[in-house]
Amino acid sequence: MPRPPAQTDLAVLGALSLAPMSGYRVRQEIVSTLGHFWTESFGQIYPALARLEARGDVGRDDAGRFTLTPAGRGRLRALLQTPPEIGPPRNGLLLRLFFGREAGRRTCLDLLAETEQEVTRRLAGLAETRATLDPTDPDERYALLTLSAGEHQGRATLAWIAETRAALESWPD
Known about the structure:
Blueprint: H1 5-18, H2 23-34, H3 42-55, E1 58-60, E2 66-68, H4 70-80, H5 92-98, H6 100-103, H7 105-132, H8 138-170
Antiparallel strand pairs: 1-2
Helix pairs in contact: 1-2, 1-3, 1-4, 2-3, 7-8
Organism: Cellulomonas pakistanensis
InterPro entries: Tscrpt_reg_PadR_C (IPR018309), Tscrpt_reg_PadR_N (IPR005149), WH-like_DNA-bd_sf (IPR036388), WH_DNA-bd_sf (IPR036390)
Pfam families: PadR (PF03551), Vir_act_alpha_C (PF10400)
């Protein structure tokens, strides 16, 4: 299901609030700064940029980079004040575990191990990012709030994996 445009607009306008940039750079900024909790594809970003430019929320500088206009900054602030759009949950691991009887216990344990490795890798990346952020910087304080959420989610997932692994291993064949 496509993401509602308001959330994509928010992500794009937010990225452009940092600096003027190309559409490619907007995607890179979203991946590098928001990637632990948000993603946008090029297929979402370029239509959003065209839509925002047509609305007057985005302009272009002499180098052809997209820039946030005063109207765009106002739209960004308005979007930031709206409740987040919550989509239906999608968790591929839980989908597979739900039908785990068909997959078999060994497959389920392997899926848990793979997920555990991925979550551990992400937590290490968040720790690296945390080390680069300055808690006294007004902007970076907010980034630390979202980073903390990612850390909490990762630790909770690891605890759930340990509990689930123990349950699976305790069941008779």
